[in-house]
Amino acid sequence: MSAVFALATSLLWGLADFGGGLLTRRFPALTVVVVSQAAAALVLGGIVVGTGGWSEAGPRLWFAVAAGVVGPAAMLCFYRALALGPMGVVSPLATIGVVVPVGVGLVLGERPGPLQYAGIVVAVAGVVLAGGPQLRGAPVQRQAIALTLVAALGFGAVMALIAAASVNVTGLFLALFVQRLCNVVVGGTALAVSVRRGTPALPEGGLLPVWRSLPALAFVGLADVAANGSYALATRYGAVAVAAVLASLYPVVTALAARGVLKERLRMVQAAGAGLALAGSVLLAAG
User: Fold this and answer.
1) Upper half-sphere CA count for residue 286 (Cβ side, 13 Å)
2) Phi/psi at 249 (5° precision)
3) CA 87 – CA 73 distance, rounded (Å)
4) How many percent of the chain have pLDDT more than 90?
5) What pLDDT is stored for residue 207 in this prediction?
6) Distance separating alpha carbons of residues 97 and 118, to the nearest angstrom
């Protein structure tokens, strides 16, 4: 069951990243983050009210607050690193954030079996290769590497924090709601600062293009929420280390979505990486 939830996480994160990537071609990245997370917060707020989630409020919610602060900061570092490029280095390098939840699991006493250790190595290698690392070409700026590493650690921290933010499903809805509220506050503050500095927050045409794209923006936010939720469930049914690696297969999903929708051709190294990632997931599930 843990493997199913973790693989669902990778699917949802992959689709969310793909959708977010398409939308950032039309709108500023901060606008996409704030609007998508606000839409998710509205839906989660209704679920929390309907399920009586407020009764689950407690000290664990501070983990959700931390995840809500760290997440947008990591995303902003990631977008900045992508702008500095090259993307073929930045994207796969960001997946090393998986070491954070894996390390947490090991500290808590989890000890994967031999097949699972092999699966972790194979899957992580596959994810990095599936991102299409640029082994040749323009040199990478040190700032891009530094920002990518900060983003990777932030993404990994969010995975660890959201897994610790609740003890049951009702509490999980509340934790995700609190996380999204913090996402909106942090992202909205950054957006306001950006606008004050003269950076436009809206595309040509003003609010109308954003309004027309609201369903797509909401999908990105809700897919991200669902991914966080399924990952938290995955960590409850199985080892954190295994769930974290399986959940980190999302770059493969993004690459395949780009191949199917945008007709982007996979390079040989990407195809090999996708195959390794799938092989690693089989080993992890079998172990």
Assistant:
1) 12
2) -80, 5
3) 19
4) 17
5) 77
6) 19
